[in-house]
């Protein structure tokens, strides 16, 4: 027996030798099979069989017998046809012994209209407990014939081992009958089978007393009807072990390659696979281990994992004991019944009995369903599953429809076998679930039981309010007698409808788990669903990322700085993690913080005098590595070369520090030759009794992040060290802007294959001006994926999976060929296909599970033209498939007709050129043209303003042929023009100011006629707007006389006129509307000049302005002044701008007129400017004028004193820091040009490409 075991129960340990091991402590009845199949498995299995090996449910006639159903045979009637043409027919083939079947081929009945177009296969080893052929976790339906002569062959995805096969017709020719001729292909199969009785153990002695194994390969097959028990176990004296066991009908592999003595390293690892393995069918197991890497395969589903701990060898003892075994296969006595939603089984029982006794076992996924129904002489009894509990309803009609309810158990819809026993006698009823007598529920009933003699199982009675049962039953007992289901099948007792006898076709739709990224799977009989809460993913299978891929993407969506979750690989395996996004600069920065506090004292050390500080981040190494496409910086301090180093990526030691580079082993001061001790290359090596610091930026991103710092020589008497490791900072997102331009209808980019898997997602951005074209096409085997734009407003997705064609289309309400960026997202998973356009427009199509569960490999991916079709013309960027970014720019550079990069960054979801700035396309981004705005800065958000001294004025002249420029959004409106002769009926004046000076002129706009617009501050500091458009004796004035605006606070003014309507927006207060008198003209004729601060012009001018407000002039700040699209103040302050502007007096650039408001917001109820409070008395009085003057003088004196005190404090701080500079910080400088380097090391750093992306001084973080 040992020789046989050595041949078949083998574990491959290494290439040098093979030893065998098989140990099992079993408390169940599994059958373990160790097999071997050699040679080509393509033999014809059905043709050589005798006529008697074929049987069927029925025969249409003498020449239509099952024995004539051989491929290409013409004997008899040329094939098998049953008497009835319905779904209850079957053709059975007895292969004589267990065979391995790999394929089936079918034909229709010879020269007839009888053929089968769809069918299923069942198989069994003993003509009972039939199992349906499953593929991709589903009962598989095969495509059959379309005529009577063509041979259609179907390969089995997984070979089956069986003796008996049943062919089940599902669909057939509507103009004929069921007809078939078939052939089965495969080969002989041999195996040694061992039967365990629950106490048996098999042992084997190794050739050496101890085995220290690096590589294992374990293979076995088993079958059982019991859900718990050990299949294999081996262990060693050092605590190593390997164990394979069933737990709740799932297979658990436990392995331990070793744990440390004190438990600091735990090696125990357990992985579960499969479910419903107590189905009395064969299951194959393969365990492959090489060191800590393990492939655990159950029924062709493989899990890859690494064991815990740090050990690689499996140390096992050399001997285990054995007990009695039998080399035979005991068949199970149970015979299951399979119910679908329309099934019922009717069975007889004892009539007029005084005892009701029914018991059965069931398994299901549905929380509710009818198990049994029977009539009583005075009512009826229902036994069912309600919300996972077994519930009994007894309706007693004799007592005015008294209803009695008892229930027991919970969560019994878990797919496991559960037993139920209902017993009612005399005046009591008892319900027992899973044989637990201690939890039996008892209740009194008001009548004496008298049975009716007919029992319905699964459904069949209309009086029951419960839904039909879907699942399996077995061990059905009525009146304590086991029901003979074979007699039921032969029609000797009872009856049934849509019931499959001797088969349990329950499927665990959550194994394998199609819920990705840790999603929780739950199921009913028909489908499964995924709970994605807390995973960071969404969708039907938790496949699509919930968060954006980078801070750059958040910024482009209009978000502001803050903490965000990012998912750099999208639907890939790396989980999202939390970062801080800084969006205040033109470049977006991503920050990962660590656990080390600034200025952490380095105190504890080992016996060698070295202190080790571990640095951890709020992200794993794998998550950080996904940021390597971004420029990274690190702020750090170091002490004690060569005793001190830091550890970066890949656990490599590095001896360079901030401001230095790889291999130089110097600090920044060593590069710049300004260290405290010229004999050392770092300040901290000077060994002075004073604090010194080396600080700077680590810029070589392939070495980051810092994971450990080792500080040496800390045990020296009097020495002391402090360490600061700043956050990891990464900027930008190159992959988000990775783009290619398609310039020809024949342009295309080709990529190699990518795995489609059961879930595939594709995401990209595009911009085009063409109404038609192909974006993407990928083909592979029987699969095809095609995305195109059609008609300029429709995106069409075509999917072909497993011969099934699915088309989804999304229509956009606005044109897609508008040369703006649009986003396409596609997801195909086992449940549905989804097409999303621009994140808003969406179409979902439920998938046919049988097809979409298939694993596909797309052999070629084409972007643009493919298969002779027209390519889309335009740009594509940020192409991501299954979490992998495709490098469009690199491939475009190698492909004719396609160019890297793309013009079109401006047209996207959220434009960041503010305040009327114009977006200008660049190669790999965009810039904002602020020339026609009153703002500056990268996004036209920086205020441009100036401080006006006494007598200062700014004058902007409109040329006669230029006129007043018009805002883009108002071009084409009546009254606007581009010529100097235009008569304006609309204008907009916007500015902000702050001052203590009153009266004064803020803005004055003149014309070549007597038309004008003036905004002034009156004597009491209130605002007045003066419109003179002709037709009136005096200018139309708007007096805002309820607030002193000359209070030193910043105020914003927006005046917009459209014909007679004038709208005024002042600060944060409600919008006010005024109307010009009917006698006033509505045209502002021939605009000539804009004056700021003071008016200096010849000709007829409003005399009130000159007399009351023009002297001595405005003193204070003006900012963001803009009249239509003219910014006169900006033109005056920007020397590089060519504009007809002049300045008189002293004008100092300042944005003091646009600083944030310090006046708190006021409600309309308390706002004195609000129209409803127009009659109230404003508390400002003229006699406060002198007080204002005093306040102004006091403010000036106080400001001077503050400046003096602040200057003194700054000088003191500088002196103290200079005096104690040995306890201060040394900051490295920015990288300078190589030509200005002071030494060779500095020149290396300057010329190293890894250091070209240095960080501006404003972007650095310094820890002092």
Index terms:
1264 residues, 13-stranded antiparallel sheet, 39% strand, eight-stranded antiparallel sheet, single chain, mainly beta
Give a topology summary.
Layout lengths: L1 H7 L1 E3 L5 E3 L10 E6 L6 E2 L9 E3 L34 E17 L8 E9 L6 E2 L1 E2 L2 E2 L2 E2 L8 E21 L8 E8 L1 E6 L14 E4 L1 E9 L5 E7 L5 E7 L2 E7 L11 E6 L9 E8 L2 E6 L2 E6 L7 E4 L19 E12 L6 E9 L5 E8 L2 E8 L2 E8 L5 E7 L9 E8 L2 E6 L7 E4 L6 E7 L13 E8 L2 E2 L2 H5 L5 E7 L18 E4 L4 E4 L5 E2 L5 E2 L5 H6 L5 E5 L10 E6 L6 E4 L7 E3 L8 E4 L6 H5 L5 E7 L7 E3 L5 E2 L13 H5 L22 E4 L9 E4 L9 E3 L1 E7 L7 E4 L5 E4 L2 E2 L4 E9 L4 E8 L2 E8 L3 E8 L2 E8 L10 E7 L3 E6 L3 E6 L2 H4 L4 E2 L1 E5 L9 E8 L2 E2 L2 H6 L4 E3 L17 E5 L2 E5 L5 E2 L5 E2 ...
Antiparallel strand pairs: 1-2, 3-14, 3-16, 4-13, 5-6, 6-12, 6-13, 7-8, 7-11, 7-12, 9-10, 15-24, 16-21, 17-18, 18-19, 19-20, 21-22, 22-23, 25-34, 25-35, 25-37, 26-31, 26-35, 27-28, 27-34, 28-29, 29-30, 31-32, 32-33, 35-36, 38-39, 40-41, 42-43, 43-44, 44-53, 45-52, 46-51, 47-50, 47-53, 48-49, ...
């Amino acid at each position: 027996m040992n020789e046989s075991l050595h041949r078949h129960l083998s574990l491959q340990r290494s290439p040098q030798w093979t030893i065998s091991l098989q140990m099992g402590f079993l408390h169940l009845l599994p059958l373990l099979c160790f097999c071997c199949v050699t040679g080509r498995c393509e033999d014809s299995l059905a043709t050589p069989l005798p006529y008697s090996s074929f049987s069927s449910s029925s025969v249409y006639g003498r020449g239509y017998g099952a024995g004539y159903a051989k491929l290409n045979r013409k004997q008899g009637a040329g094939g098998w046809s049953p008497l009835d043409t319905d779904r209850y027919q079957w053709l059975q083939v007895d292969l004589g012994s267990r065979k391995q079947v790999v394929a089936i081929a079918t034909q229709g009945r010879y020269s007839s209209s009888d053929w089968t177009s769809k069918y299923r296969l069942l198989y069994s080893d003993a003509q009972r407990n039939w199992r349906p052929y499953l593929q991709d976790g589903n009962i598989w339906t095969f495509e059959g014939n379309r005529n009577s002569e063509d041979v259609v062959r179907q390969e089995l995805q997984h070979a089956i081992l069986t003796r008996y096969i049943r062919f089940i017709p599902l669909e057939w020719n509507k103009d004929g009958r069921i007809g078939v001729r078939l052939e089965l292909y495969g080969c002989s199969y041999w195996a040694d089978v061992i039967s365990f009785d629950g106490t048996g153990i098999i042992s084997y002695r190794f050739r050496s007393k101890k085995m220290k194994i690096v590589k294992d390969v374990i293979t076995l097959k088993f079958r059982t009807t019991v859900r718990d028990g050990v299949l294999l176990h081996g262990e060693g004296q050092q605590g190593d072990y390997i164990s394979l066991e069933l737990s709740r009908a799932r297979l658990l592999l436990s392995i331990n390659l070793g744990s440390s003595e004190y438990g600091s390293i735990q090696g125990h690892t357990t992985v579960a696979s499969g479910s419903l393995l107590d189905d009395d069918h064969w299951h194959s197991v393969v365990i492959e281990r090489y060191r800590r890497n393990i492939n655990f395969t159950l029924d062709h589903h493989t899990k890859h994992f690494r064991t815990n701990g740090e050990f690689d060898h499996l140390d096992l003892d050399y001997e285990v004991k054995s007990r009695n075994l039998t080399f035979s296969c005991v068949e199970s006595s149970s015979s299951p019944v399979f119910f679908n939603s329309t099934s019922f089984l009717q069975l007889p029982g004892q009539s007029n009995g005084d005892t009701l006794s029914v018991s059965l076992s069931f398994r299901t996924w549905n929380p509710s369903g009818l198990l049994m129904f029977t009539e009583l002489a005075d009512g009826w009894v229902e036994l069912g599953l309600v919300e996972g509990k077994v519930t009994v309803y007894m309706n007693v009609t004799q007592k005015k429809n008294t209803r009695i309810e008892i229930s027991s158990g919970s969560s019994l819809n878990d797919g496991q076998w559960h037993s139920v026993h209902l017993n009612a006698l005399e005046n009591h009823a008892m319900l027992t679930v899973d044989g637990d007598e201690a939890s039996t529920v008892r209740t009194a009933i008001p009548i004496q039981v008298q049975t009716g003699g007919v029992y319905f199982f699964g459904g069949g009675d209309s009086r029951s309010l419960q839904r039909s049962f879907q699942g399996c039953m077995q061990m059905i007992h009525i009146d304590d007698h086991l029901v003979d289901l074979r007699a039921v099948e032969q029609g000797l007792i009872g009856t049934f409808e849509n019931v499959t006898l001797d088969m349990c076709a329950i499927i665990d739709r959550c194994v394998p788990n199609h819920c990705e990224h840790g999603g929780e799977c739950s199921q009913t009989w028909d489908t499964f669903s995924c709970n994605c809460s807390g995973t960071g993913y969404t969708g039907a299978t938790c496949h699509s990322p919930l968060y954006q891929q980078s801070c750059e993407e958040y910024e482009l969506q209009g978000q502001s700085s803050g903490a965000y979750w990012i998912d750099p690989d999208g639907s890939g395996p790396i989980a999202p993690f939390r970062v801080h996004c800084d969006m205040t600069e033109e470049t977006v920065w991503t920050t990962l913080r660590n656990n080390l506090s600034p200025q952490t004292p380095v105190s504890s050390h080992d016996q060698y005098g070295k202190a080790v500080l571990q640095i951890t981040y709020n992200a794993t190494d794998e998550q950080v590595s996904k940021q390597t496409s971004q420029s990274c910086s690190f702020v750090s301090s170091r002490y004690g070369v060569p005793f001190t180093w830091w550890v970066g990526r890949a656990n490599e030691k590095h001896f360079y520090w901030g401001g230095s580079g790889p291999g130089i082993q110097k600090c920044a001061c060593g590069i710049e030759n300004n260290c405290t001790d010229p004999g050392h290359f770092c300040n901290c090596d000077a060994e002075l009794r004073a604090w010194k610091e080396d600080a700077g930026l680590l810029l070589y991103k392939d070495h980051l992040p810092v994971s450990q710092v080792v500080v040496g020589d800390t045990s020296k008497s009097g020495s002391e060290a402090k360490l600061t490791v700043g956050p990891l900072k990464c900027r930008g997102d190159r992959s988000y802007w990775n783009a290619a331009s398609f310039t020809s209808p024949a342009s295309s980019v080709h990529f190699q294959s990518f795995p489609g898997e059961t879930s595939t997602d594709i995401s990209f951005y595009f911009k085009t001006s063409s109404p038609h074209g192909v974006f993407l096409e990928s083909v592979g085997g029987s699969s095809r994926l095609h995305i195109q734009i059609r008609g300029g407003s429709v995106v069409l997705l075509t999917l072909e999976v497993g011969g099934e064609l699915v088309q989804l289309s999304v229509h956009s309400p606005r044109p897609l060929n508008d040369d703006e960026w649009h986003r396409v997202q596609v997801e195909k998973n086992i449940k549905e296909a989804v097409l999303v356009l621009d994140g808003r427009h969406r179409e979902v199509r439920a998938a046919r599970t049988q097809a979409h569960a298939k694993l596909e490999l797309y052999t070629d991916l084409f972007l643009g033209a493919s298969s002779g079709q027209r390519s889309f013309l335009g740009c594509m960027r940020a192409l991501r498939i299954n979490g992998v970014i495709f490098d469009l720019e690199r491939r475009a550079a190698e492909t004719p007709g396609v160019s890297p990069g793309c013009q079109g960054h401006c047209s996207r979801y959220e434009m960041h050129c503010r305040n009327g700035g114009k977006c200008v396309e660049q190669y790999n981004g965009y810039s904002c043209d602020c020339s026609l705005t009153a703002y500056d800065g990268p996004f036209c958000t920086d205020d441009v303003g100036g401080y006006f001294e006494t007598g200062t004025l700014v004058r902007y002249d409109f040329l006669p042929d230029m006129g007043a420029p018009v805002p883009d959004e108002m071009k084409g409106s009546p009254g606007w023009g581009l010529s100097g002769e235009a008569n304006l009926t609309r204008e907009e004046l916007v500015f902000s100011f702050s001052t203590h000076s009153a009266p004064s002129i803020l803005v004055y706009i003149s014309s070549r006629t007597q038309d004008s617009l003036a905004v002034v501050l009156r004597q009491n500091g209130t605002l007045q707007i003066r419109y003179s458009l002709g037709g009136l004796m005096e200018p139309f004035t708007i007096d805002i006389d309820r607030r002193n605006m000359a209070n030193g606070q910043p105020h914003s003014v927006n005046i917009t006129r459209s014909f007679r309507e004038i709208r005024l927006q002042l600060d944060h207060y409600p919008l006010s509307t005024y109307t010009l008198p009917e006698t006033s003209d509505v045209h502002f004729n021939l605009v000539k000049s804009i004056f700021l601060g003071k008016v200096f012009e010849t000709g007829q001018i409003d005399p009130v302005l000159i007399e009351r407000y023009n002297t001595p002039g405005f003193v204070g700040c003006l900012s963001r002044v803009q009249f239509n699209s003219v910014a006169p103040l900006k033109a005056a302050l920007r020397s590089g701008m060519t504009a007809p502007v002049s300045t008189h007096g002293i004008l100092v650039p300042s944005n003091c007129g646009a600083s944030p408001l310090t006046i708190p917001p006021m409600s309309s109820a308390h706002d004195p400017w609000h129209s409803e409070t127009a009659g109230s008395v404003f508390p400002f009085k003229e006699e406060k004028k002198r007080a204002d003057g005093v306040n102004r003088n006091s403010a000036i004196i106080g400001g001077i004193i503050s400046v003096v005190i602040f200057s003194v404090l700054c000088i003191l701080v500088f002196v103290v820091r200079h005096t104690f500079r040995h306890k201060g910080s040394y900051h490295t400088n920015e990288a300078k040009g190589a030509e200005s380097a002071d030494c060779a090391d500095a020149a290396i750093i300057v010329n190293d490409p890894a250091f070209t992306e240095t960080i501006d001084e404003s972007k650095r973080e310094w820890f002092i």
